[in-house]
Write a structure and sequence with these properties.
Length: 347
């Protein structure tokens, strides 16, 4: 039973609640970075793997809540657009983090085999929703086989990333500007580690609650303003629920945890594709993939383009670029704002 009748609230009040929830999500992300950096060192997982699995999934709780709630409420376009639009927004956030890092381009300083593998994994699993949409409309217990494939591909991909960290066969050439993932000497023992995990869990719960509010208010904005669910999901709720990634990536860069910043975004993006699978479980009207529209396909294609551009930046490793950021980061900004400008023009 709903604690709040969202439909009875005025649009201005809904907008205020939406903004407050988004601000809460942003503020909590700052603490997450500090906690994640220490946990990466004390657990021995390393910044790239910890960022991809734990920080990426924790900062994604708001997005999961938003997409699944939208799917349960029979808003499939909002659910998918929020999931994939969040990935596009978070890729742009890496360009913002690049601006915040002055010694060199972030793509140069944070290049690692784990981050490259995570980018390749993201590109691979982004293709699965497109295949499911274009394929037969199948479902077992209301779940499309593509959702099972998505989860399996993600788990196998993260196994490869972990394997690459323990036994790398390829490494980025070290330069004066390269910032390797070196653990801090300081450790606090088992009691300190337990407190860190507890703090991390509490922050994750706060983000999840805020994500639920964002989902509800985002759906109301879509219904009352006449904007399509794709635009509300792909821009407004996607950016709002992705604010932890923006805050954590910039905060990580300022702490010198560059691998954590890039790994948290790219690895978190791979986890975010699973939102579509989770939403398929919550959507009871059939396969959510077959409820996709041209706008969702457009957003997925844009996300693939942004991910490919980012991968080229990590491989090319330009030290300095235009406007103080890498050329690929600049291109990501142009592509993102240009693409969503076209979506707005089309309604």
């Amino acid at each position: 039973m709903e604690l709040v009748s969202w439909g009875s609230l005025s649009l201005s009040l809904v907008a205020v609640i939406f903004g407050v929830a988004a601000l809460l999500v942003a503020v909590v992300g700052t603490d997450m970075t500090r906690t994640a950096d220490r946990l990466a060192d004390e657990t021995g997982l390393g910044e790239a793997l910890f960022g991809a699995i734990l920080l990426g999934s924790a900062t994604s709780i708001a997005g999961i809540t938003t997409s699944v709630t939208a799917a349960v409420n029979a808003l499939p376009s909002l659910a998918i657009s929020n999931a994939i639009g969040g990935i596009a927004a978070q890729t742009v956030f890496l360009a913002v983090a690049d601006i915040a890092y002055r010694p060199a381009n972030l793509e140069h300083a944070a290049a690692s085999v784990e981050n490259l593998l995570q980018g390749a994994l993201l590109s691979t699993i982004l293709a699965i929703p497109l295949l499911a949409m274009a394929g037969p409309n199948l479902a077992l217990f209301g779940i499309h086989p593509g959702s099972v494939l998505l989860v399996g591909a993600y788990l196998f991909g993260m196994h490869l990333v972990a394997e690459a960290r323990s036994t790398p066969y390829w490494m980025a050439r070290q330069t004066e500007e390269t910032h390797p993932d070196v653990p801090d000497d300081q450790t606090g023992g088992s009691s300190s580690l337990l407190r860190l995990w507890g703090r991390f869990a509490v922050l994750a719960l706060i983000v999840g609650a805020a994500g639920y509010v964002i989902a509800k208010t985002g759906g109301q904005v879509a219904a009352r303003t006449g904007l399509s669910e794709s635009i509300v999901g792909g821009v407004f709720t996607a950016v709002s629920t992705s604010l932890p990634e923006l805050v954590t990536s910039v905060a990580a860069v300022r702490r010198g945890a560059l691998t954590l910043a890039v790994g948290g975004i790219i690895g978190g993006n791979s986890f975010d594709v699973l939102f579509v699978a989770f939403s398929d479980v919550g959507y009871r009207a059939g396969s959510i993939y077959h409820a996709m529209t041209d706008q969702q396909v457009f957003i997925i294609a844009l996300t693939l383009l942004l991910t490919g551009t980012l991968l080229m930046g990590l491989l090319r490793r330009e030290r300095w670029g235009m406007f103080g950021i890498g050329f690929e980061s600049f291109l990501v900004l142009v592509l993102y704002f240009g693409a969503f400008g076209l979506l707005f023009m089309g309604g």
